[in-house]
From TrEMBL, chain A:
It comes from Saccharothrix carnea. It is found in: Cell membrane. One of its GO terms (cellular component) is plasma membrane. This is Cation/acetate symporter. It comes from the Bacteria.
From TrEMBL, chain B:
The chain crosses the membrane at residues 56-77, 89-115. Pfam families: DUF485. Keywords: Membrane, Transmembrane, Transmembrane helix. The keyword Membrane applies. This is Uncharacterized membrane protein (DUF485 family).
């Protein structure tokens, strides 16, 4: 596509070198578990807010959403809205309570007033499953991106690139711990948001600062015509696709505040007030970013046109890079590519850290060592886990290379909303909730989500499935959230009332008071 | 590199004349047990904590239900009433796009409203509950 490989690689190389240096400087004193997992809780709300948006904005949101808007118009825009609105849940219900209750992982919160070992094991299982799915999606995306941007078309070449991404990400985590990784997120988020904002302002300027003019030109450059501005292009027509649409929307809005790597970020600030401020900052960043995707998506349609986007390698994912090339030539394309690549790198680093923390803190320290682990060995286990998780992600990413990336990401959201949200809500708000209820809602949500997905059109029977040639799909929706999220709430309820185990009222009092005030947590 | 946040300067009584609450301090009405640890059951039943819980509930419950209904309603309208959402409002901008942009506006507005409410009504009440313990005096 006329890009200049040397420029792309150069910009990206500079980014990696700068961030590695910063990570090295930030992370050289990562002695304690608190440093490694939570950066010593030393970040401010605004810093963590920017890092939160960095953790959250994956390449799927940047390339995927702007591409989806360019191809599906209005229906693509709905992703953007869901992801912005979802932060309200994190703001009002999750962030402050989580900060006050836990120390390093989701398991800290869920196991607070329950029997430690089974609940922590369950929390770690969920975290590992979600993180791995999300990570493999990102790694596979890195392969696809490279095909597009660097003209690497051989499978071996893409595998090498995926391996390089994996190695750099493990380096970030090993050298920098949470502090280094957070700085990578901050730098990347600033780059990404500056990049999309400048591009949008430039586009708006080109059309006389009239959104209407961009939309109008866009609608003349697609075979859909004005319909591209109306709902129904992607999800219209029959009742199944309409339900699928609702299901996706539900998973998006409820999934964000249940993603383990997002939850873990709340531990990097010193208290609940800063946790709240970080969500406020993250919301501003999100709103800016996703408004820009609207302009960029329709702008790509207006300036590049749907025919050229569809014909480019990478299909709709190439809308933003094509637009950058159209607007600013090879240099801007290089910058946009490097930013997209940095995005993948930073997100997988955050996920690796979360997965390793969950294994070391919940499984090793609390399940295997029964809470008697030496903190130094706990951190050592966490680092080893990071390497193992990195290897798994590289292998999985190479295996999944070429798969439908958006599907894996949406699956991670559905999994998070199904397994985590119900459990968090019950354990914070329902006095009677007990250990069996916790296990039922975690495994019920996780299990039903994976089970329904295995028999959905996302896996088999449709053109976009993983196995398009066989058909064992009987569940009609590609996204199982509409069923599995309520199901996990039901499981948690039934598991609680059907067991004879009584909830511990003293522990419940401690958790409620602590989650709302921070008393007993040592936080100021 | 990281800017550390200093703990808020504590103007509690411990800094001034009176010392820490001790075992032989009969005037202490702190809700703590013999070891000085917070008594969570008593705290949970205290009027200050119940007021904190009430203030949180009256904001968070209606706000959460409200934004979920508004968002899901918008999605449902897009799915089941595409013609209505396609009604042009201004230029080529139709009702659906307008509602979509409004979702951004309401999200920011609710975020700011909650932050303000928390600063004014919740944080002081949290301090009131915390002052029932020795938490901020150590």
């Amino acid at each position: 596509m006329g890009g200049n490989t040397a420029i792309n690689l150069g910009v990206f190389g500079v980014f990696v070198l700068i961030t590695l240096y910063i990570v090295y400087r930030a992370g050289s004193r990562n002695a304690t578990a608190s440093d490694y997992y939570a950066a010593g809780s030393s970040f401010t709300g605004p810093q963590n807010g920017i890092a939160l948006s960095g953790d959250f904005l994956s390449a799927a949101s940047f390339l995927g959403i702007s591409g989806s808007i360019a191809v599906n118009g209005y229906d693509g825009f709905l992703y953007s809205i869901g992801w912005v609105v979802s932060w309200l849940l994190g703001l009002m219900i999750i962030s402050e309570r989580l900060r006050n209750t836990g120390r390093f992982t989701l398991g800290d919160v869920l196991a607070f007033r329950m029997r430690q070992r089974p609940v922590r094991a369950a929390a770690a299982n969920v975290t590992l499953v979600i993180s791995l799915f999300y990570m493999i999606a990102q790694m596979a995306g890195a392969g696809a991106l490279m095909a597009l941007l660097l003209d690497v078309h051989s499978k071996v070449g893409q595998a090498v690139i995926i391996a390089v991404v994996g190695i750099v990400m493990v380096l970030y985590v090993l050298v920098g711990g949470m502090k280094g990784t957070t700085w990578v997120q901050i730098i990347k988020a600033v780059f990404l948001i500056m990049c999309v904002t400048l591009l949008s302002v430039f586009l708006l300027g080109k059309f006389g600062f009239s959104l209407s003019a961009i939309l109008e030109t866009a609608s003349r450059n697609t075979p859909l015509g004005p319909e591209v501005l109306e709902p129904g292009v992607r999800y219209g027509g029959n009742p199944t696709s309409q339900l699928d649409f609702l299901s996706l929307a539900l998973a998006l809005v409820l999934g964000t505040a249940s993603l383990p790597h997002v939850l873990m970020r709340f531990y990097t600030v010193p208290n609940a007030r800063e946790a709240r401020r970080s969500v406020v900052w993250a919301t501003w960043m999100m709103a800016t970013f996703y408004l820009c995707t609207l302009v960029i998506g329709f702008g790509a349609l207006a300036l590049v046109g749907s025919k050229e986007i569809a014909a480019a390698p990478g299909g709709e994912n190439s809308a933003a890079p094509l637009l950058a090339y159209e607007v600013g030539g090879a240099v801007l394309l290089g910058v946009v590519s490097a930013v997209a690549f940095a995005t993948i790198l930073a997100v997988v680093a955050g996920l690796t850290l979360t997965a390793s923390a969950s294994f070391a803190h919940d499984v090793y320290a609390n399940v295997i060592k029964r809470g008697q682990a030496d903190p130094r060995s706990e951190v050592r286990v966490a680092r080893l886990t990071a390497v193992a998780v990195g290897l798994l992600a590289i292998v999985g990413g190479i295996a999944a290379n070429g798969q439908n990336v958006a599907f894996l990401v949406a699956l991670a959201f559905a999994l998070a909303a199904s397994a985590n949200l119900s459990t968090i809500i019950y354990s914070m708000f329902w006095k009677r909730f007990n250990t069996p209820g916790t296990l039922w809602s975690i495994y019920g949500g996780l299990g039903s989500c994976i089970f329904l997905l295995a028999f959905s059109p996302a896996v088999s029977g449709a053109k976009s499935s993983i196995f398009p040639d066989v058909d064992f799909a009987w569940f009609p929706l590609s996204n199982p959230g509409l069923v599995s999220i309520p199901f996990s709430f039901l499981c948690g309820y039934l598991g609680t009332i059907l067991s004879r185990e009584k909830a511990d009222p003293v522990k419940q009092a401690e958790m409620e008071v602590r989650s709302l005030t921070g008393i007993g947590s040592g936080l100021k | 590199m990281t800017k550390a946040i200093l703990p808020p300067t504590d103007s509690g009584p411990a800094r001034g004349g009176r010392g820490f609450a001790t075992f032989d301090d009969p005037g202490s009405s702190l809700l703590v047990d013999e070891a000085g640890e917070p008594d969570f059951v008593a705290l949970q039943a205290s009027a200050d904590f119940r007021e904190l819980r009430r203030r949180i509930t009256i904001f968070v419950v209606p706000a959460t239900c409200g934004f979920l209904l508004w968002y899901l309603g918008y999605v449902a309208l897009s799915a089941y009433a595409p013609d209505f959402m396609g009604t042009p409002v201004w230029g080529v901008i139709n009702l659906g796009l307008l509602f979509g942009l409004l979702q951004f506006v309401t999200t920011i507005a609710l975020t700011l409203a909650y932050a303000r409410y928390a600063r004014r009504k919740l944080d002081p009440q949290v301090r009131a509950v915390r002052s029932l313990t020795a938490e901020d005096q150590a």
